[in-house]
Amino acid sequence: LDASLAIRKFLPPTRKDRFRQLWRKNKQYKNDYKEKVRLGTILENSR
Questions:
Q1: How far apart are CA 15 and CA 25, in angstroms?
Q2: Domain layout of the chain by residue ranges
Q3: CA separation (Å) from 26 to 2, 32, 47?
Q4: The predicted structure's pLDDT at residue 15
Q5: Parts of the chain with a pLDDT under 70
Q6: How far out from the chain centre does Cα 45 lie?
Q7: pLDDT at 45
Q8: CA Rg, the chain, in Å?
Q9: Contact present, 40 and 32 (Cβ < 8 Å)
């Protein structure tokens, strides 16, 4: 098990790994965007 994990570390990321990475990044981006929009609307309303 340890050997396979060590080998796995040196292998380039598989398509699934890359997809998961992109998905996580995209989710983070969407959350940031939602937060910005929310803050923006709060600022607009407070004017």
A1: 15
A2: 13-46
A3: 31, 10, 32
A4: 84
A5: 1
A6: 30
A7: 85
A8: 19
A9: no
